[in-house]
């Protein structure tokens, strides 16, 4: 039987929105197993916005600046606010595990130990914590879920309906379910090539499917050039915070729509908001970094790539600068996923998403 804790600190300072979404099952499982506990989270912006308003979370703290040492300072400040009797961290740099061990009661400081290549990261976290005795594995929901308010869902539905109404031709699609395209990725190595996005737009628009895309989350930099955004081809959602975007994704789910994107934070937000997703995996393996949602469809490019290191992705030759040894201009693994395959998967995601007219399907090549 797991022990009971009254003050819990969760530290996730890996930096990505998707990293935080993968920790959501841990946060919610801890809150469910230790009702009434003060549960605090230290994480980065903008992902922290996903936890504000979450009834499981008592407080969220973020680094106060972007200079070296900011993350350690944020953890130290959280510890100064109160000594937790349980501290859990996904973060191993800058002496943060030692800092927690010196100031907290019980600590679990290595959720990355001994990972197999075929176990989802979020499930691995939960299994380790169950083995450590802080969770009851029988009472855990392993699927990441965002907890949105009624107001947030209503506003998301309003934003979606407004934009669809503006796109009567050809985007409204006669009441057909919308498809949201998420080409942006924080790392170049995770971007499906722009030419593929344009091919997908042509296929889906040719079927009269209403298409949308989120506004870019940051100004383009030289590293972000060629994000794949099909500028001018697809109506763009207004700039939204993450919880507002999650509200739109929830509205897409309410219309039986689909969200398409790479292994990125926004796509994980979509899945955690309840939307059906089609996820495009290249340098990361879906068997380890998949969305964890039974309704998600995962398309893996070049599953046998000899340069992929599923349990040590940051050491891959392509990881930091998208220098693919198999292709000079783009990640070969992602380029290997055809737009026609993605379009066909979108049409069948979670069942017959687009049911009318009869014979509604991607036309054959040629």
Automatic annotation (TrEMBL):
Record bears the keyword Glycosyltransferase: yes
Pfam families named in the record: Glyco_transf_9 (PF01075)
Classification of source organism: Bacteria, Bacillati, Actinomycetota, Actinomycetes, Micromonosporales
Protein name per its UniProtKB record: Glycosyltransferase family 9 protein
PANTHER family: LIPOPOLYSACCHARIDE 1,2-N-ACETYLGLUCOSAMINETRANSFERASE-RELATED (PTHR30160:SF1), TETRAACYLDISACCHARIDE 4'-KINASE-RELATED (PTHR30160)
InterPro entries named among the record's database cross-references: Glyco_trans_9, LPS_LOS_Heptosyltrfase
Alphabetized UniProt keyword annotations: Glycosyltransferase, Transferase
Keyword Disulfide bond set for record: no
UniProt source species: Phytohabitans kaempferiae
CDD domains, A to Z: GT9_LPS_heptosyltransferase
């Amino acid at each position: 039987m797991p022990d009971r804790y009254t003050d819990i600190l969760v530290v996730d300072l890996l930096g990505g929105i998707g990293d935080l979404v993968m920790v959501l099952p841990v946060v919610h499982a801890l809150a469910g197993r230790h009702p009434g506990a003060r549960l605090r989270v230290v994480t980065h912006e903008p992902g922290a916005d996903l936890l504000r308003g979450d009834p499981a979370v008592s407080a969220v703290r973020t680094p106060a600046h972007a200079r070296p040492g900011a993350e350690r300072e944020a953890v130290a400040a959280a510890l100064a606010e109160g000594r937790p009797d349980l501290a859990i961290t996904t973060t191993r740099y800058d002496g943060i595990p030692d800092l927690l061990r010196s100031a907290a009661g019980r600590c679990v400081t290595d959720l990355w130990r001994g990972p197999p290549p075929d176990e989802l990261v979020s499930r691995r976290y939960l299994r380790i914590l169950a083995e450590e005795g802080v969770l009851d594995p029988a009472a855990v929901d392993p699927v990441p879920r965002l907890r949105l308010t009624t107001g947030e869902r209503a506003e998301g539905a309003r934003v979606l309906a407004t934009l669809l109404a503006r796109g009567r031709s050809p985007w409204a699609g006669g009441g057909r379910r919308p498809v949201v395209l998420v080409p942006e990725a924080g790392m170049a190595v995770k971007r499906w090539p722009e030419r593929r996005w344009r091919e997908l737009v042509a296929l889906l628009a040719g079927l009269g499917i209403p298409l949308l895309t989120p506004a870019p989350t940051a100004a383009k930099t030289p590293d972000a050039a060629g994000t794949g955004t099909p500028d001018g081809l697809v109506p763009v959602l207004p700039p939204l915070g993450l919880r507002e975007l999650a509200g739109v994704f929830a509205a897409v789910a309410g219309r039986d729509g689909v969200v398409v994107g790479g292994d990125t934070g926004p796509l994980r937000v979509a899945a955690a908001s309840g939307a059906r997703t089609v996820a495009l995996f290249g340098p990361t393996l879906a068997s380890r970094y998949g969305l964890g949602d039974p309704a998600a469809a995962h398309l893996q490019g070049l599953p046998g790539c000899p340069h992929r290191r599923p349990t040590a992705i940051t050491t891959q030759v392509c990881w930091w600068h998208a220098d693919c040894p198999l292709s000079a201009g783009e990640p070969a693994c992602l380029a290997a996923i055809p737009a026609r395959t993605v379009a066909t998967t979108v049409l069948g995601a979670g069942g017959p998403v687009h049911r009318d007219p009869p014979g509604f399907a991607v036309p054959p090549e040629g």
